[in-house]
Design brief:
Chain A: Keywords: DNA-binding, Phosphoprotein, Transcription, Transcription regulation, Two-component regulatory system. Chain A: It comes from Granulicella cerasi. Chain A: This is Response regulator transcription factor. The complex is a heterodimer of chains A (about 240) and B (about 475). Chain A is built from 8 helices and 11 strands. Chain A is an alpha/beta fold and about 240 residues long. In chain A, strands 2-1-3-4-5 form a 5-stranded parallel sheet, sandwiched between helices. In chain A, a hairpin with a 4-residue loop joins strand 7 and strand 8. Chain A is elongated and about 60 Å long. Chain B is built from 8 helices and 15 strands. With about 475 residues, chain B is of the alpha+beta class. In chain B, strands 4-3-7-6-5 form a 5-stranded antiparallel sheet. In chain B, strands 9-11-12-14-13 form a 5-stranded mixed sheet. In chain B, a hairpin with a 5-residue loop joins strand 1 and strand 2. The chains are: A alpha/beta (about 240), B alpha+beta (about 475). At the A-B interface, helix 8 of A face helix 5, helix 6 and helix 7 of B.
Chain lengths: ~240, ~475
């Protein structure tokens, strides 16, 4: 989570008010300052009103669509990162979106952890973070160079995939990651389907056995309906 | 004739038929007439020559030096040769020595022509003052020491009249023949096309509702029977597709409705409850799980749509062995967890390159292997074999599970099909996996089926056309 001095300003342009209020609430709870615009015109006005770090832009909007607004933003050379949201989740649309000048692209329906992770990734490009050789969560430490894992000084033998999975969880800093994210970022699969969900579940279980079974403090958590997280339990 | 105006095929056939027949008849009439004309003209010439020779024998100079014709030669005084014969005899100076009375004093052919009748029988046609044409034969003849020019002819009027009559009869016969032929042709065409009309009226009555009706095939060997068979075949496929679509839509709606119902129920209960906290979280988690199920189904449907839209072989070149390697690498952990051994002989054939949509093929193989793992008992083996024959690469996936009933071998590829055994399995999915696999493999020009002859477990066979073989591997 980011501290107050790093609070970024995010503008959400989305015409579906239900989804919009969920987006605003969700992104705000992650520590960002959020403004909502329900149309492209309003969004464009808001962009000129205040300094905006990130624009979450829906493609299908009344009158002027998201691509249209994006084109104008790029023509006017407004300095803002753009994350497009769309239900047309085909490769062609992705390519079109990215060509028009979007920085990232997320298909509906998306999982919230994924949206937050993408937002963070885009903001990180603005706010550089130190990358270190080792990542620690509680008494678990992972060395990204030697790809060695240990907990409380005890080495844990992990397969390559298990290490990648654990590292990915660790790098997300206690945030919940969804199965879609794991499928894409750890398994490098372009589409998610039933077999892979099974594989992820099994892999997490095996990882849990190796990392948590012999310790009283559990680090790997399953968040029902959302995904998994690696963190020290609160309280 | 504007062909657009003649709409019916039978009318068009009849018109064509009549036109062709008329042309043939016209040529026929011209030929017959010309032949007849020539033939009779020759006959007339021949007769005239004969008559001339006869007449030469009958001419004599009487005592007064006048030229006479011996009349008593003809036993029949009314012979038309006698009556119709036109004759004139000149001496070489042009003085008329003899002229038949029916010429009424008129000259037959005028003054002598140079060399006329010199050594053979000259033929020509002359016109008398009353307009009649005469076919004329001239011949020089020496008698009693004097040379005379004999001209002998017959009026062509009767001949011409005959020929005109003949032509008229022919010309009148043609339209009559054409009318009869046209009528007969129309009837024949109608008779021949009648089955077509019946077919059309049957086809007209076939709608989406009674697609099971078929055209009657009277004779499967003739053209119409062949066409009816083709049409029936089309109806077969259409009916099949329609039924598929019908059950598919129903099944899809059901698959989507079940999670929706769960979401709604859980949400409504959660709202009714007074207490909040853990229970709310439970409800929300349950809702999200159902949403994931919905998404899974939708993802499967989209994958199907994508595979269906992929008309031809895709753009990628890939190795099936490589794809299988990736798939087993991903799914290996599932097998390992249940101590299922994955055994394969697959290193030998790595030079074989296939062509298609690699991502789709990978999903297909993934679904097949996942299926095999799902139905395998713990501590069993799944065997992969790989072979190439006749331009096709064959991959078999053999498990030691419960196997597949013969009656299920086809339906197992149906959309939303879940076997009775599979329904209890965890994460059984929406039942789209194998139908996606089948669609993808078929669109890539291959085939997929479960070998009906295996005794233990199930054996899935995938065949795909080889794009090329890279040697030196």
């Amino acid at each position: 989570m980011l501290n107050a001095s790093q609070r970024s300003h995010i503008l959400v342009v989305e015409d579906d008010s239900k989804l919009a209020s969920a987006l605003v609430a969700g992104i705000e709870s992650d520590g960002h300052q959020v403004t909502w615009a329900s149309s492209a015109e309003e969004g464009f006005y808001q962009l000129h009103q205040q300094k905006t770090d990130l624009l979450v832009l829906d493609v299908t909007l009344p009158r002027r669509d998201g691509f249209d607004l994006l084109r104008q933003i790029r023509e006017d050379r407004i300095d803002v990162r753009v994350l497009m949201l769309t239900s047309h989740n085909s490769v062609e649309d992705r390519v079109h979106g990215l060509r028009t000048g979007a920085d990232d692209y997320l298909g509906k329906p998306f999982s919230f952890p994924e949206l937050l992770a993408r937002i963070d990734a885009l903001l990180r490009r603005i706010l550089p973070q130190a990358t270190s050789e080792s990542v620690t969560v509680g008494d678990l430490s992972l060395n990204t160079k030697t790809r060695a894992a240990s907990r409380a000084g005890k080495t844990i033998e992990l397969s390559a995939r298990e290490f990648d999975l654990l590292l990915y969880l660790a790098e997300n800093g206690g945030r919940t990651v969804s199965r879609e994210m794991l499928a894409r970022d750890v398994w490098k699969e372009s589409s998610r389907y039933t077999p892979l969900d099974n594989v992820i579940d099994v892999q997490i279980n095996r990882l849990r056995k190796k990392v948590d079974d012999s310790f009283s403090v559990k680090l790997i958590h399953t968040v029902r309906g959302l995904g998994f997280s690696l963190r020290e339990p609160e309280g | 004739m504007n062909w657009c105006l003649v709409k019916q095929i039978r009318s068009r056939l009849t018109v064509w038929y009549i036109a062709v027949l008329a042309m043939i008849l016209a040529v026929y009439v011209v030929l017959v007439f010309a032949f007849q004309y020539r033939f009779i003209r020759n006959q007339i010439f021949h007769d005239e020559v004969q008559d001339l020779v006869t007449v030469e024998g009958l001419l004599y100079f009487d005592d007064a030096g006048a030229l006479k014709l011996q009349q008593d030669y003809f036993s029949h005084p009314q012979s038309h040769l006698l009556i119709d014969r036109l004759m004139e005899v000149h001496d070489l100076s042009g003085v008329v020595l003899y002229r038949t009375p029916n010429l009424a004093g008129e000259s037959l052919g005028g003054p002598s022509l140079p060399n006329e009748g010199d050594d053979r029988f000259d033929q020509r046609v002359v016109r008398l003052s009353d307009g009649t044409h005469v076919s004329l034969v001239s011949h020089l003849h020496t008698m009693q020491g004097r040379v005379v020019l004999i001209r002998l002819g017959y009026s062509l009027a009767p001949f011409r009249m005959r020929m005109t009559q003949f032509l008229e009869i022919l010309l009148i016969a043609i339209p009559i023949a054409l009318v009869f032929a046209g009528f007969a042709g129309y009837q024949i065409a109608r008779q021949a096309l009648k089955p077509l009309e019946e077919m059309a009226s049957t086809a007209k009555q076939i709608t989406a509702r009674n697609l099971n009706e078929r055209l009657l095939i009277e004779n499967p060997d003739d053209e119409l029977g062949h066409m009816a068979a083709v049409f029936n075949d089309l109806l077969d496929r259409l009916e099949q597709a329609f039924q598929q679509l019908h059950s598919f839509t129903g099944d899809a709606a059901h698959e989507l409705r079940a999670p929706m119902a769960a979401i709604r129920a859980v949400g409504e209960i959660a709202l009714r409850e007074q207490e909040t906290g853990e229970r709310d979280k439970d409800a929300l988690a349950s809702i999200l799980e159902e949403t994931a199920r919905l998404e899974d189904t939708i993802e499967g449907l989209l994958l199907l749509a994508r595979a269906e839209a992929a008309r031809s072989i895709g753009p990628d070149n890939y190795s099936l062995v490589e794809v299988l390697g990736e798939v087993t690498e991903v799914l290996g952990v599932l097998a390992e967890e249940r101590r299922i051994r994955l055994s394969s002989n697959i290193h030998a054939a790595s030079g074989i390159v296939l062509s298609g949509d690699r991502g789709l093929i990978r999903s297909a193989v993934m679904n097949v292997v996942h299926n095999a793992i799902k139905f395998s008992p713990n501590d069993s083996t799944i065997t992969f074999t790989h072979s190439v024959a006749e331009g096709q690469v064959q991959l078999t996936v053999q498990d030691q599970g419960p196997g597949i009933e013969r009656s299920e071998l086809e339906s197992i590829f149906g959309r939303f099909y879940t076997s009775p055994a599979g329904q209890t399995a965890p994460n059984s999915g929406a039942g789209l996996g194998l139908s996606i696999a089948q669609l993808v493999i078929q669109r890539s020009g291959g085939e997929i089926f479960f070998d009906p002859d295996v005794s233990v477990g199930a054996c899935c066979v995938i065949r795909l056309p080889v794009h090329r073989v890279v040697s030196g591997q």
